[in-house]
Design goal:
Blueprint: H1 4-8, E1 11-15, H2 22-35, E2 39-42, E3 56-61, H3 70-82, E4 87-91, H4 94-99, H5 102-116, E5 120-124, H6 132-144, E6 149-151, H7 164-174, E7 179-183, H8 189-198, E8 202-205, H9 208-216
Parallel strand pairs: 1-2, 1-8, 2-3, 3-4, 4-5, 5-6, 6-7, 7-8
Helix pairs in contact: 3-5, 5-6, 6-7, 7-8
Catalytic activity: 2-deoxy-D-ribose 5-phosphate = D-glyceraldehyde 3-phosphate + acetaldehyde
InterPro entries: Aldolase_TIM (IPR013785), DeoC (IPR011343), DeoC/FbaB/LacD_aldolase (IPR002915), DeoC_typeI (IPR028581)
Pathway: Carbohydrate degradation; 2-deoxy-D-ribose 1-phosphate degradation; D-glyceraldehyde 3-phosphate and acetaldehyde from 2-deoxy-alpha-D-ribose 1-phosphate: step 2/2
Length: about 220
């Protein structure tokens, strides 16, 4: 079984439910500090996050559909960074990837990277909705556009969330040049360990407490 401390150190403790309140975010921050995780991830309307301490603060852009004009996505990223986001998790236009318009996908990512300045950009590719070939090409384009991570899923797509196969394929494509974040439907210790074994260097979890408690036990 994976070491609890090591797992906590790669967790983005996530709260992206549409019904989340400012009080819920306060509770998330408190729990994140108690758990010793790396980061929190919240909706952009919840920024700035006060009293985040040493936690990395991440937010989402173009979430969850990705079907936002590129210039709007970039503007959203710029505003998020000015509101204190250390990291920006952007959703690609999945339809563009499926249609084979990878130049548009790359341009979309490039715009967010430029707008995010020094903040780390993670590119959510919605891997469950893509073929293996599309996953590989989107990852290549994310790297070319200057992203720091590729990420499996929003957790909101009906096609599903993270899979070990997708994580492995993403890792093979980007090597050690980019990070790979597994997110979406990871609710058990076994699932978390499977993603780490496949090569994930970051985990997006909403149920961090339960997974870490089981690891401690």
């Amino acid at each position: 079984m994976t070491n609890r401390t090591d797992v906590a150190a790669i967790i983005d403790h996530t709260l992206l439910k549409p019904e989340a309140t400012p009080a819920d975010v306060e509770a998330l921050v408190s729990e994140a500090k108690e758990l010793g995780v790396l980061a929190i991830c919240v909706s952009p309307s919840m920024l700035p996050v006060t009293d985040s301490g040493e936690l990395i603060v991440a937010t989402v852009v173009g979430f969850p559909s990705g079907q936002v004009k590129a210039e709007i996505k970039a503007a959203e990223a710029a505003r998020a960074v000015s509101d204190g986001a250390d990291e920006v998790d952007m959703v690609i236009n999945v339809g563009q990837a499926i249609a084979g318009d990878f130049d548009a996908v790359e341009a979309d990512i490039s715009g967010v990277v430029a707008a995010s300045e020094s903040s780390l950009v993670k590119v959510i590719i919605e891997s469950a909705a893509l073929t293996d070939e599309q996953i590989v090409e989107v990852c290549r384009r994310a790297e070319a556009a200057g992203a720091g991570f590729v990420k499996t899923s929003t957790g909101f797509h009906p096609a599903g969330g993270a899979s070990a196969h997708a994580v492995s394929l993403m890792c093979e494509t980007v090597g050690d040049r980019l990070g790979v974040k597994a997110s979406g439907g990871i609710r058990t210790v076994e699932a978390a360990e499977e993603m780490i074994a496949a090569g994930a260097s970051r985990l997006g979890l909403s149920g961090s407490a339960g997974i870490l408690e089981e690891l401690q036990g």
